[in-house]
Write a structure and sequence with these properties.
590 residues, alpha+beta, 9 helices, 47% strand
Length: 590
């Protein structure tokens, strides 16, 4: 089973069922003549030659793998045959190679798993010869040979390369030509299959390993070949098909990474660049992790801590407009505490969440300053606002607007009371610099409900509707006059009593701030008018009773009686009355 494991490692393309079948058949080899080992082994070259004409890669590699396995199994008792068969494996592998197919490096692992041997495939199948235990590489005008075995064991890769270098050193040959010759054998198109890319990359691995050995001895400046995945290329070290150590990766979208690799992942320190941005810093799990700097093409730059490619921890962000943020980050967003200095001179110092002001913080600009609570990037909660024109507000906020209980003061006015959505709403007291004041109910920044409004000239207590006196209310004027009655849109309208400063009174109907309709007017001289009014004058039917008892009744126009009615005789006559009584009695008697 150990040999089978070696074989699977040696030739990855081998058909596993073939290996298992051979492993099961071998124990039966000693039971009869037909299965005698020598007879069985003699058939193997025939099977291999037949496989050369078979079009299936799986079958062909199965044959090569079978021969290689038997060569390993025979090593203990059949050393000579094992040696020949192992060399035959190398020969078959290279003879099978054709100019239009790239060949993988033949990787074999020796029986005790202590080392690997490597031999580069050659583009031209005639360039390699196997004689006894030697393999010959034929280059222009030169034949270099080296032995694959030492003390019956396969040489290590270092030993084989050292042997070849020693041979090259003794012969006048251009090593750069050899390197370039190898390089020409390893060309592949962008439309190659995944299997062909794997073969290509294994071959590149062998090439780069040899080049590294040669370069150390002869100080060559020949660059190593890149590994390929379609349009993507990798220049660096690969171990068992995985990128390790220092390396340079160019991706199919032309983005590039240069830096450390661990187990085929970017890990350590490296630089990545693409059209949108570049990153310089530490990596882990194939992503920026740790400290680094990310610079965008539009001028944005971040320096600080990363977690899985996202800004996280302490960091500084410089924005395209010149603004700078210094503080903590989480999941790629400003979160925690930090300071933002904007290009226009404004700044914020405080708490953040999801890239917005959240919690307690102070915002200051050229015109204003706010210190208090924030939510979702807006003033929210309790806070103090100061405008540099002298205006202040202390109280509740909701979505950047005054809300709840609060006190507003400015040079021209002040308000203490309830707010809603930035407007006075509820109950509150308002005062102005010119002496006006209001105490009562508010609605959407307007007097509404019941309240008292005072100015240096007037005082009103009563009902309001949408900022105007509407309903019942009492108005007192500076000169002593009063009105107690109904109002509409800041004007006397409906029924009401007006008491004038000279003692006169009007009790009746009003319209558009004028006496209109029916009403009674008592004048200071004692006269009284009872009747109809219009446009603040007697108009219509009415009766004016003078202080001496004289009356004027009729149709009035603009305070004048135009059509007086006839005066009825209301005098009492005792004679006439007695006559009428006597006449009535006489008629009753007779």
């Amino acid at each position: 089973m150990e040999a089978i494991t070696d074989l699977i490692y040696t030739v990855p393309e081998v058909s596993l069922w073939t290996v298992v079948l051979v492993a099961l058949v071998l124990p039966l080899a000693t039971k009869n003549f037909l299965c005698n080992r020598v007879f069985f082994y003699a058939l193997l070259p025939v099977i291999a030659v037949i496989g050369m004409f078979w079009q299936s890669d799986i079958y062909w590699y199965s044959v090569i793998g079978t021969v290689g396995l038997l060569g390993v199994l025979l090593r203990s008792k059949w050393g000579i045959l094992s040696t020949l068969m192992t060399a035959f494996v190398v020969l078959l592998y290279h003879v099978y190679a054709s100019p239009d197919k790239l060949q993988n490096c033949l990787l074999a692992k020796d029986y005790n798993k202590s080392c690997k041997i490597l031999h580069l495939a050659s583009k031209n199948k005639n360039l390699l010869q196997v004689v006894d235990d030697n393999i010959y590489d034929r280059y222009p005008d030169t034949i270099v040979s080296y032995n694959l075995f030492i003390d019956g064991c396969i040489k290590t890769i270092d030993a084989i390369i050292d042997d070849s270098l020693n041979q090259y050193q003794n012969i006048d040959i251009d090593l750069l030509t050899i390197v370039n010759d190898w390089k020409k054998t390893m060309m592949i198109g962008d439309d190659a299959s995944e299997k062909e890319y794997n073969k290509y990359n294994n071959c590149v691995c062998a090439y780069n390993t040899c080049l590294e050995k040669i370069s150390k001895r002869y100080e060559l400046n020949t660059p190593q070949l890149p590994y390929r995945w379609g349009n993507a290329t990798f220049s660096g070290k690969m171990v068992k098909g995985k990128r390790v150590g220092k390396g340079h990766m160019v991706y199919s979208d032309s983005s590039m990474y240069e830096g450390d690799w661990v187990n085929d992942l970017r890990c350590g320190y490296g630089t990545y660049s693409c059209r949108e941005y570049s990153y310089i810093g530490t990596w882990d799990k194939d992503m920026p992790n740790g400290q680094g700097c990310k610079s965008f093409a539009n001028g944005i730059e971040y320096k600080g801590s990363f977690v899985d490619s996202l800004y996280s921890g302490e960091g500084t962000m410089k924005y395209a407009d010149g603004s700078v943020y210094v503080g903590t980050w989480a999941y790629g967003e400003r979160s925690g505490s930090g300071t933002l200095n904007n290009k226009d001179g404004s700044s914020y110092v405080g708490e953040w969440k999801s890239d917005k002001y959240e919690g307690k913080g102070t915002f200051q600009s050229k015109n204003e300053k706010y210190e208090g609570e924030w939510q979702n990037g807006k003033k929210h909660g309790q806070g103090k606002w100061l405008n540099f024109d002298g205006s202040t507000y202390i109280g509740g906020w909701y979505a950047d607007q005054y809300h709840g209980k609060g006190v507003f003061k400015s040079k021209s006015q002040s308000y203490v009371g309830d707010w809603q959505s930035g407007k006075r709403h509820g109950k509150g007291n308002w005062k102005t610099a010119n002496g006006a004041s209001y105490s009562g109910d508010w609605y959407a920044d307007l007097f509404h409900g019941f309240g008292t409004y005072k100015t240096p000239e007037t005082s009103y207590i009563g009902e309001w509707r949408i900022g105007k006196m509407s309903g019942k209310g009492v108005m007192k004027y500076k000169d002593g006059e009063t009105y107690d009655g109904e109002w509409l849109d800041d004007k006397r309208s409906g029924k009401g009593v007006m008491r004038y400063k000279d003692g006169e009174t009007y009790d009746g109907e009003w319209s558009d701030d004028k006496r209109s309709g029916k009403g009674v007017m008592r004048y200071k001289d004692g006269s009284l008018y009872k009747g109809e009014w219009s446009d603040d004058m007697k108009n219509g039917k009415g009766c004016l009773t003078m202080s001496n008892g004289q009356t004027i009744t009729g149709e009035w126009t603009d305070d004048k009686c135009s059509e007086p009615e006839e005066k009825k005789d209301d005098d009492f006559s005792w004679g006439k009355a007695l006559f009428e009584i006597g006449a009535a009695a006489f008629l009753l008697l007779f």
